[in-house]
Automatic annotation (TrEMBL):
Signal peptide: none annotated. Residues 5-118 form the Gfo/Idh/MocA-like oxidoreductase N-terminal domain. This is Gfo/Idh/MocA family oxidoreductase. InterPro entries: Gfo/Idh/MocA-like_OxRdtase_N, Gfo/Idh/MocA_oxidrdct_glycsds, GFO_IDH_MocA-like_dom, NAD(P)-bd_dom_sf. It comes from Microbacterium deminutum. Pfam families: GFO_IDH_MocA (PF01408), GFO_IDH_MocA_C3 (PF22725). The keyword NAD applies. Residues 130-265 form the GFO/IDH/MocA-like oxidoreductase domain. SUPFAM superfamilies: Glyceraldehyde-3-phosphate dehydrogenase-like, C-terminal domain, NAD(P)-binding Rossmann-fold domains. Keywords: NAD, Oxidoreductase.
Length: 374
């Protein structure tokens, strides 16, 4: 085999990091870019040396494309991904997999019937940071995992984004914008979620744009801008998660896992590397003993890597006949959990999760994205 041909649909801001990283992986080659605005596709193609550009239909019709990377807006994810499956292409999609269960389930069933694969962001799960942390936990470094605490809190993207309204609209908010990172990590560590209880609020019913050409314009806040979620997993583990666009205190990427024999902090699930450290129990305390607990750093590879890693793993997994890590099934279960959290906010009741997902595999040992393996 030679490098696998990739076509990208949607060349907005996030396409830059995909194109930069994919160009460094010998096993794949981006052969065409497509966008609603063809001129934008042309500019990106020229910038990154991609040989062809056009519309989404041009990408789907391209004979050299085996895998479509879907970087469209969330509302179009299912439609574009289904079109790629209908065209006989494997699909990697940005998160979330879709915005409703029925559409996402239909996508997965059509892919299965066609013998094609679906992968879904985030692919930060494949980064050396999360992989090393998960291996440490599975090796018993903290004993049996019991519960987790995660936090993402910020003043909100309206402070820096020139067109932030969509991030506060139905299908977004901190729940669906940032939640996939945290709950993909938790499901990878603890397995399927059994039920959730959640509480949400809005700091205000409308917000203001603070940068760009529309400074001063206001827009409605359609969904909770702060949400807190308690999740119970089939394994018996539990988690507590805060997702907020209303916090004066900026704090990102907090993931703590607490077990029977210690606690571990793991990297930001929106990053591919970061700190891993363990604290051990104090033991029996006696008068005059210190409560100080030293953090024990766990060293791991800090490879410069980024988005596109999940698509590479899909390509190799297809060739090797193994499951890929960031699967469509994982994306569906996480979507189900997040939608259930939104339903819990509305109803005030605990919501039982209907879907499950198989244990999420680790990357094969020695996985080197910069090697030529096909």
């Amino acid at each position: 085999m030679s490098a696998v041909g990739i076509g990208i649909i949607g060349v907005g801001v996030i396409s830059d990091t995909y194109l930069q990283n994919l160009a460094s992986f010998p096993d794949v080659e981006v052969v065409i870019l497509g966008d609603l605005v063809v001129e934008r596709a042309r500019e990106q193609a020229e910038k990154y040396g991609v040989p062809a550009h056009g519309t989404a239909d041009d990408v789907l019709a391209h004979s050299g494309v085996d895998l479509v990377i879907n970087l469209t807006i969330p509302a179009a994810h299912v439609e574009v991904s289904r079109a790629a499956i209908a065209a006989g292409k494997h699909v990697w999609t940005e998160k979330p997999l879709g915005l409703d269960r029925d559409g996402a389930a239909l996508l997965l069933s059509e892919a299965a019937a066609a013998g094609l694969r679906v992968g879904s962001a985030p692919d930060t799960l494949l980064g050396p940071g999360f992989q090393a942390a998960r291996r440490a936990i599975e090796a018993g470094r903290i004993g049996r995992p019991l519960f987790a605490q995660t936090a993402f809190q910020t003043q909100g993207p309206d402070l820096w984004h020139p067109n932030p309204a969509f991030l506060f609209a139905h299908g977004a908010g901190p729940l669906l914008d940032m939640g996939p990172y945290y709950f993909s990590a938790l499901v990878s560590l603890f397995g399927s979620v059994d039920r959730v209880s959640a509480f949400g609020l809005k700091a205000s019913e409308e917000r203001q744009i603070h940068t760009g050409p529309n400074v001063g314009d206001t827009f409605p806040v359609e969904v909770p801008s702060t949400i807190q979620i308690i999740a119970a997993f089939d394994s018996g583990a539990q988690s507590q998660s805060l997702l907020s666009f209303d916090s004066a205190l900026e704090r990102h990427g907090v993931v703590e896992i607490h077990g029977t024999e210690g606690s571990i902090v793991i990297p930001d699930p929106n990053q591919f590397a970061g700190r891993i450290a363990v604290v051990e129990p104090l033991g029996v305390l006696r008068d005059g003993m210190s409560f100080d607990q030293p953090w024990i750093e766990i060293e791991h590879d800090q490879i410069e890597i980024g988005r596109g890693l999940g698509a590479l793993d899909m390509v190799r997994a297809i060739a090797e006949g193994r499951p890929h890590v960031a699967s469509g099934e994982l994306g569906f279960h996480v979507l189900d959990v997040l939608l259930s959290a939104a339903e819990s906010v509305s109803s005030g009741e605990t919501v039982k999760i209907q879907s499950t997902v198989a244990p999420v595999p680790l990357l094969p040992a020695g996985f080197d994205p910069f090697a030529s393996t096909l």
